[in-house]
TrEMBL record:
Organism: Actinomadura rubrisoli
GO biological process, one term: cell redox homeostasis
Residues binding [4Fe-4S] cluster, per UniProt: 16, 45, 48, 54
Name assigned to this protein: Transcriptional regulator WhiB
Superkingdom in the source lineage: Bacteria
Keyword Chaperone found: no
Similarity section: Belongs to the WhiB family.
Entry keyword set: 4Fe-4S, Cytoplasm, Disulfide bond, DNA-binding, Iron, Iron-sulfur, Metal-binding, Transcription, Transcription regulation
GO cellular component terms attached to this protein's record: cytoplasm
Cofactor(s) demanded: [4Fe-4S] cluster
Amino acid sequence: MHNNENEEHWTDHAICRGADPDLFFPIGYSAPVLQAQQDAAKEVCANCPVAADCLAWALRVGEPDGIWGGTTPEERRYLRRTAEAPARRRLPVIVVRGDASESEHASAA
């Protein structure tokens, strides 16, 4: 919510303002029609100056439907899963006796 009536919000600059909401919330269509509609909505998002803010908001609130910040619900679920995944550490390199790299080092010495 706005703290001040005159304060701007990212939604004030969204180019989808006033657009047909059905474009961004496709339901009940066959796969090819759904894909075409998602692509059309993503084209609008691709030219939007606040797409990153829109996506950040949708991820923060867990928006389950529609195209937000140029992403589908499935794409946002993937982004949330990867963001919540624990950090992966690199495994230590283990040199086994007789390893090719070890014999190369021995011959170079």
